[in-house]
Amino acid sequence: MGGGGRPRPGEISLAHEGVLFLDEMPEFQPRVLEVLREPLETGEVHIARAAQQVTFPARFQLVAAMNPCPCGYLGDPEKSCGYECEKAKRYQRRLSGPLLDRIDLHLEVPAVSPDTLLGAADGEPSRRVRERVLAARACQLHRQGRLNRELDAERLMEALGPHKAWLTGVMERLELSARALHRSLRVARTIADLAGSEVIRREHLREALSYRQNLLKP
C-alpha cells in the first residue's frame, strides 16, 4: 500500500498500469489482502499521516494464484491430504467475499498429464491473440471513447437489450452482488468484442458468468 513517515508508494502503485501478481494468495495476511479492495475499485490509494495526506495512483491488474487446499492436492485420489472439505474450506475462507467480488475471472486449473505436458503445443500463438486483443481494444475506444473496464452501470445496462429478464433470474439464482453483476457485464462486453460481435449475446453472458464459479464445488 505504501506509507512511512514521509509517505512513499507501495507495490500496488509501482504496478500502476501494469500487473500485480500475488502467488499463494491465502498465505498473505488478511489485513494485507483487505486493503486491496478500495484500490481495485477506484484505482487509487490514500495514505493519511498526521502531517499530510497523499494519494497515489494504483490502477493495476491483479493476478493471483493459489492451491485450493494447503496440501496442494485437493481432489487427487492418491495424494490428497484426506481433509478435502473442511481443511480446504478453512483455507479458502482467508479470502473474503468482498475481495473475491472484485476479481473478475475465477479459473480452476487442473493438473496436466505428462502426455499433454510433453506433447506438441496445440494452442493459439501469442502473436495471433495479441492481434485480436488490439482489435477489440480499438473497437471499444471507437464505440464509446473508453475501455470496457471504465463503463458505468447505466452504459452497461443499455447494452443488455433483450437479456434483462433472463439475467434477473440468473442473478437471483447465483446470488450475485451488484458489483459482481456489473463486473460480469464488462467481461461479457469484452468477450463480444473479442468475437467481433457488435451486440452482447446470450452466450457471451453465459461465458462471463461461468468465470464467477465458487472455488469449492458444492
TrEMBL record:
Residues 1-115 form the Magnesium chelatase ChlI-like catalytic domain. InterPro entries: CHLI-like (IPR045006), Mg_chelat-rel_C (IPR025158), Mg_chelatse_chII-like_cat_dom (IPR000523), P-loop_NTPase (IPR027417). Coiled coil: none annotated. It comes from the Bacteria. Pfam families: Mg_chelatase, Mg_chelatase_C. Residues 123-212 form the Mg chelatase-related protein C-terminal domain. This is Magnesium chelatase-like protein. It comes from Alloalcanivorax venustensis ISO4.
